[in-house]
Recover the amino acids of this structure.
């Protein structure tokens, strides 16, 4: 096991910060589709675009995979591994950087309704929040392979940041879908 000094903590990013980030992004994401009807949830702004339901499915599926990795695939982190926490805080939620979803998280109609997808997201995110709440080790001293190839190996702390910011990214996507829907009906 590595010492806590191997990856010194950034002053602003501690367990309380991560928990607040995860809780705030959960609320932002859920608020983004509050009041969306089942009909609206299936509407796509273009043939190659996702619906609200697709977006909720994607995020829920991605978080389920990421939580499973955190629970089962952690390994000690090298002392010279780069710390990308600040980078992930800045770039993951940015919708200007388009990324291709890994096949495992691509929407495939896993949920019959938006309500079912939202319920599973809530359950999964609760597990994500419980992870750092119950952690006793420094979240920077272990790492996992992130399912998106662009991220590679990430510390547990970085994975939690990515998860929170990923939810913010897709909340913004849902806002875009709803704006396109409003334009369509006006």
């Amino acid at each position: 096991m590595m010492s806590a000094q191997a990856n010194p903590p950034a002053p602003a990013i501690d367990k309380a910060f991560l928990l607040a980030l995860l809780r705030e992004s959960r609320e932002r994401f859920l608020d983004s589709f509050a009041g969306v009807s089942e009909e609206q949830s299936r509407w796509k702004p273009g043939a190659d675009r996702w619906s609200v339901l697709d977006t909720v499915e994607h995020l829920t599926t991605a978080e389920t995979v990421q939580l499973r990795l955190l629970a089962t695939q952690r390994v000690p982190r090298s002392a010279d591994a780069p710390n990308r926490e600040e980078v992930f805080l800045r770039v993951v939620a940015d919708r200007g950087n388009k990324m291709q979803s890994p096949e495992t998280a691509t929407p495939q109609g896993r949920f019959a309704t938006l309500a079912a997808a939202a319920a599973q997201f809530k359950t999964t995110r609760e597990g994500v929040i419980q992870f750092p709440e119950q952690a006793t080790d420094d979240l920077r001293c272990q790492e996992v392979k992130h399912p998106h190839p662009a991220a590679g190996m990430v510390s547990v702390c970085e994975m939690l940041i990515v998860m929170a910011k990923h939810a913010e990214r897709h909340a913004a996507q849902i806002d875009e879908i709803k704006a396109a829907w409003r334009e369509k009906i006006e």
